[in-house]
Amino acid sequence: MTSVDLPGETAGEPDPVDRVADAVVRVPGVTGLHAGSYGEVATYLPGRSVAGVRQRDGVTEVHVTVAMGTAILEAATQVRAAVEAVTGDEVHVVVEDVSPA
Questions:
Q1: Beta strands 90-99 and 59-67: pairing type?
Q2: Strand ranges in the chain using DSSP code E only, listed in sequence order
Q3: What is the phi/psi pair of residue 80, to 5°?
Q4: Which residues pair with 94 in a beta bridge?
Q5: For 18-54, what is each residue's pLDDT tens digit?
């Protein structure tokens, strides 16, 4: 079986959206990314999608779930800072849900 390089991807280098997703889930209190009520929040890549992250026109939007007991404003501020460090974009954070701790 052979490997096919997809346009825009360099072997071993993650897509910028994957770097955003990784930065978000590393924030304390964030339990995951959230695709929205109807699965509408995602970035579509060749052969897959990254739920909970949408990028367009210099704005990165992330939708997250946080653990119960997490200070929501603090978590959102940390998510914003983490994503800004990765992208340099304006960042919009939406806390979609709270999960049991």
A1: parallel
A2: 30-33, 42-45, 48-51, 53-56, 59-67, 90-99
A3: -55, -45
A4: 63
A5: 999 999 999 999 999 999 999 999 999 999 999 999 9
